[in-house]
Automatic annotation (TrEMBL):
Keyword Transmembrane: yes
PROSITE patterns: G_PROTEIN_RECEP_F1_2
Protein's recorded name: G-protein coupled receptors family 1 profile domain-containing protein
Transmembrane segments: 261-282, 294-316, 378-396, 433-458, 484-504, 516-542
Keywords: Membrane, Transmembrane, Transmembrane helix
Organism (species): Adineta steineri
InterPro entries for this protein: GPCR_Rhodpsn_7TM (IPR017452)
Cellular component GO terms held in the UniProt record: membrane
Domain G-protein coupled receptors family 1 profile as annotated: residue spans: 273-535
Localization (cell): Membrane
Length: 559
């Protein structure tokens, strides 16, 4: 009776290394030429069943499977490389060297620091080709179709080399097509190995081999086949990450980080003074008889909240990178909440300023028919509802934010934490629209309201004062209200860096132009420090009210 031997492999079967990927957790029994295998199999996992016999014995084989659910079978027909005929004339040759300057990746998704080179293959004629390496080290070869992603070495993998245990180099027999992009990756059997190598190709026609630069790894975060694609936009985490020295005190950090820390605290103090002076002005009940005063009082508070959240964001990024012993739950909570809360305060501040502009335009339009009580009532409702509307528009951010923790094992074990936002294409498109809307729309509202005030006032004056032309009235109103035009233009210019950074490609590396990104990020928060300068100082009424409030406070403190 002929004896059969069954083997089960996970993912793939290598005929030159039969012990690799074999499933050992199984029970085998049988007699009279039959076998029975009992094994625990996982769902959504590919298994390869190999049935063989004693040497030089052939036989028909049928397999029956029983279990908890249906199991599908597909026969694998991959002919041995020895059976494939190809032309043995050397058509192409390529030589290169793996050095310590070569790029590294995780070849087997277990160990890092495999040096590698990528080579683009241009096939002139469809057919079987042999690719043979010759080197002074133990080389491995992989062929990829379309592109090679070092963060995910199994993606687009077309073929990998099988070799005898004694062979130091690889040999491919692959069927290659014209008009198809192939990438050959040459690496080593063990990490940190370097050396020279050469590639010879044989086949029906010439293969052109050229150096190839693969997709940018700055688009991805992670390693060892556990990676995430970065979302569009640059945030403070990306700008400061490479600047922060791990496990070092603030005194041992770089001079650039110290300057940023000092600038952050200066902005915090400046924001506090701005809000305090604005509150002193708009706490006056006479100014809050119409909606403008109510909006500006609320804006005095939200501007300080914005600068406060900016300060919290900066120190959260710095401290969580300096001190990795901070509990993961604290880091995860800050990752999910701080950035959305910062945007909420920033957007709320911008829209309150836009409400002031709209209120002023309505006042010009209504004239003596302007209803102060109604304006005040509407302003209170808007201040109550506006935060919920803004939060509703950005609610996708905390939902899609998560903390990714990565351990690197080079000379020592290091922990790297990334705060990620992972959007689907549709959510990413929505996020871009919302971002553009909240940053640009308030500035446009301010600008349009200023133009309406200038031309509306000029039209009213031309009706009452007919001795001047409409152009003269417009010119006079422009000189009187030019600060209403200048302010939104300045705010728009200051907001542009944040808008641009929020729409940059995920592959942009901020460390290449760190000073530029830091300057743009910090300057985008300066509008929250300018409430007093933009609204109080240009207005004679507000300036007079502020001076009276200061004098009243002085009298109270000296009593």
């Amino acid at each position: 009776m002929k004896t059969m031997y069954p083997y089960i492999y996970t993912n793939k079967f290598n005929p030159f290394d039969v012990s690799k990927n074999v499933l050992n957790d199984r029970e085998i029994s049988g007699d009279q030429g039959q076998f029975k295998v009992t094994a625990v199999l996982e769902a959504n996992m590919m298994y390869v069943i190999v049935v063989t016999t004693s040497s030089s014995i052939t036989e028909n084989v049928s397999i029956q499977v029983s279990g908890r659910s249906y199991t599908g079978f597909n026969r694998i027909c991959s002919p041995s490389v020895i059976e494939i005929k190809y032309s043995d004339d050397v058509q192409s040759k390529y030589s290169l060297q793996l050095t310590t300057n070569s790029q590294t990746y995780s070849r087997d998704c277990r160990k890092s620091n495999y040096y590698y080179q990528t080579i683009r293959m241009h096939v002139m004629e469809t057919g079987y080709y042999a690719l043979i390496s010759s080197s002074n080290t133990n080389t491995f070869g992989y062929i990829y179709e379309d592109d090679f992603n070092p963060m995910n070495p199994v993606e687009n993998l077309l073929k990998q080399d099988y070799r005898a245990c004694s062979s130091r180099d690889f040999k491919f027999i692959a069927y290659l097509y014209t008009d198809t992009k192939y990438i050959l990756v040459v690496t080593t059997s063990s990490p940190n190995m370097t050396g020279k190598f050469s590639i010879q190709t044989s086949g029906p026609s010439n293969i052109t081999l050229d150096p190839y630069t693969q997709i940018q790894t700055s688009c991805f975060i992670g390693q060892k086949c556990q990676f995430y694609k970065k979302s569009i936009g640059i945030i403070l985490d990306d700008i400061l990450r490479d600047e922060i020295q791990l496990n070092m005190t603030m005194t041992d950090q770089t001079i650039l980080l110290k300057i940023n820390a000092a600038l952050t605290m200066i902005m915090f103090v400046g924001g506090f003074i701005n809000s305090l002076l604005s509150l002193i002005t708009f706490q006056n009940k006479d100014l809050r008889q119409i909606g403008c005063g109510v909006y500006l009082l609320a804006s005095s508070i939200t501007s300080f909240l914005t600068i406060s959240m900016f300060t919290v964001k900066f120190w959260f990024v710095v401290l969580t990178q300096m001190n990795l012993s901070i509990p993961v739950s604290v880091v995860r909570g800050g990752c999910i909440l701080i950035e959305p809360l910062l945007k909420l305060c920033l957007y709320l501040d911008a829209w309150l300023n836009a409400c002031v502009a709209i209120e002023r335009a309505i006042l010009v339009f209504k004239g003596i028919n302007f209803n102060k009580q109604k304006s005040q009532r509407i302003a209170r409702w808007i201040i109550l509802i506006l935060p919920f509307c803004i939060m509703g528009s950005i609610i996708h951010e905390p939902i899609h934010r998560e903390l990714y923790e990565m351990k690197t094992e080079t000379n020592k074990v290091d922990i790297d934490r990334w705060c990620l936002t992972r959007y689907s294409p549709s959510v990413q498109q929505y996020n871009t629209i919302i971002l553009f809307f909240h940053l640009v729309a308030p500035c446009i509202v301010n600008l349009c309201s200023a133009l309406f005030i200038i031309f509306g006032s000029a039209r009213q004056r031309s009706t009452a004062q007919t001795r001047r032309t409409i152009r003269e009235h417009v010119y006079h109103q422009f000189n009187e209200h030019k600060h209403l035009l200048i302010s939104p233009i300045i705010l728009l210019i200051l907001s542009l860096p944040r808008l641009i950074m929020s729409m940059l490609s995920e592959c942009v590396n901020p460390s290449n132009h760190r000073l530029l990104f830091i300057f743009g990020y910090f300057i985008s928060f300066t509008p929250s420090m300018l409430i007093f300068i933009v609204f109080v100082l240009p207005s004679a009424l507000y300036r007079k009210t502020f001076q009276e409030s200061v004098r009243r406070w002085r009298r109270l403190t000296h009593q």
